[in-house]
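Obj: model holo form, ligand = iron/sulfur cluster.
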Amino acid sequence: PILPNIEVVTRKNVCTHCSVGCTVIAEVQNGVWVGQEPGWESPINQGTHCAKGASVRELTKGTRRVKYPLKLVDGAWQRISWDQAIEEIGNQLLEIRQASGPDAVFWLGSAKFSNEGAYLYRKLAAFWGTNNVDHQARICHSTTVAGVANTWGYGAMTNSYNDIQNSKALLIVGGNPAEAHPVSMQHMLRGKEHNRAPFIVIDPRFTRTAAHATDYVRIRPGTDIPIAWGLLWHIFENGWEDKEYIRQRVYGMDEIRAEVKKWTPEEVERVTGVPGSQLRRVAEVLAKNKPSTVIWCMGVTQHTVGTANVRALSILQLALGNIGVAGGGANIYRGHCNVQGATDFGLDVSTLPAYYGLAEGAWKHFARVWDVGYDDLRGRFGSKDLMEAKGIPTTRWFDAVLAKPGDIDQPSPLRAMMCFGHGGNTVTRMPEMVKGLEKLSLLVVADPHPTTFAAIKERRNGTYILPACTQFETDGSRTCSNRSMQWGEKVVEPIFESKDDYTIMYLLARKLGFADEMFKHITVENTRPVPEDILREMNRGCLSIGATGQSPERLKMHMKHQADFDKITMRASSGPCAGDYYGLPWPSWGHPEIRHPGSAVLYDTSKHVMDGGGVFRARFGVERNGVSLLADGSYSKGSEIEDGYPEFTMAVLRKLGWDKDLTPEEMRVIQAIGGGEGSAEIDNVSWQTDLSMGIIRVALKHGCVPHGNAKARAVAWNLPDPVPIHREPIYSPRPELVKAYPAIEDRRDFR
Ligand code: SF4
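Output (holo structure tokens):
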């Protein structure tokens, strides 16, 4: 201790610099953060931090913090008080609302929010009356959510970082964990050393992770799908697939098999540059060393066909029978510390918290949870149509600033941007947005640090920076990539004049006139909403992902007494045991009598499907004349596939003339959730990531045949039982891309 006579208090929080979720033990003396240890008993970081994690203490210090509210006046920053800032920002927002409606404001959140912050921000946008609320997952892993949710059910990593030690073979695609997620690398290397697990890396670049590979596969950028199909070609050709698993649990694999047949080793080599002999070796290793896991990161997701890339790898794991087993699954590495939680709790233009979608049933559900009238909520949007229409995503908001009325699918161009949550430094990652920022009449940035966002030199007025706390100056939970919610304790008091996100949102809601309704069941202590109460409300409302058992009391208990719980409840018992957790991984069901320990592995393949065991779809969708409507709202024609959302689904339905056969309710569901992404409440039943019933019904009426899970749903809804038939292949790269690949002879120096 620096001061020998003063007690050192330890507080636990979570590292904020990546999604591994390493525990930080902060040592505080006399209110000052004097020392830091990694979480020794955490089964995830096991007493280690990487250099990034070792530096988190600096976030609460330093001269770079925003110290007090600032306002830009004629190009110069002026110090102002919190009262003045909230008053002026609130007045300008109200003026904009009066002149242009609530959709003229974009609420950009962040994956650096706590779960409670993300949920509250979504709720704030709802009370303001817009679905223009999003965060950076839009440009990183939203394709993962769509791809895996439509294959397996939930849009999340299936296993856990430390479960990788149970793998008998590792396949890493489009990721460099040795540098981006360093602590997770120890679990991989343990798997490699203890299990002698082959360590295969597929990447166009030779990275530090690739340096550890037992087999490094260098591919041409953008050829992820042919590589997956090439692996499956060898697997099917040699009979290495898990036939019993497929027979019991997987819809649509025959169609994949037919598609894969075309991807001969010669064709795959021509397209990807990978020799057939190497691909055969990798396929054999994965098939004969089971369970094998696939790990991917943004090298897979950040493509125009990102969802299809994700689907291809997901289908590979289904063919090998690796989903729903310890040591198998898909370990999908997110970026920021709370990308999973921010997505789970509603920072998305097309969903309410817990992927409830925007259909009437979903709004009614949250109106009940929030204890407000559904009509009251609807009135805030102006109309039912606006309430159920998807907002403008992060990738398009600046178009909406520059648009004229009528150019875009919302009533007016954007006029204001609210940027909260430490990390919405969107200018750095999307420089083209500057043009939009220049035109906004109001820009508000709430952040611990002055970001490039607020420093647009072309703006001379109408910009405010509010000093927000870091996560170490407040408390709340976060969900790391492995779905585990961990409670982070406040380490030090907010420094300078900073306030936490909860307080800033409360002050703003109070100025905007809806704080009483919005915080009806959340205790507010001296303008600070209590985060435990926010989480309790989330527990009540977020049924669809099983976030009901992660009460603040349980999360705190787990963080405090990890060592005791290790042998008892921390070893998650739903499904096969796959490593220990810090916190509680969802689904974790809550009930006074049930203390669900969380789900270490998503999907249980130890049970028969009739008893709740996992059942998956290699493919599902409906099609006619070669046009496929896929579960994620994509459509394909021939070998072409478009990633898409509700607008694609609607466009294809119109093209086929099927939209006329939809009931208004079905139309609303499709407009809200597309072909199947997200959730909807139909007849008081919440359907998550199901192909919408309307599409199945009209498809059957028009003589088409639903595939995969659509078939199961058709049966469940008492629609005529469809019969699977062979269809046009899907999930091939676009023909123009294939043509664009140079022939193998032309790029001998590629490797
Ligand atoms: Fe932090 Fe990630 Fe490093 Fe762990 S691996 S210490 S969570 S940056």
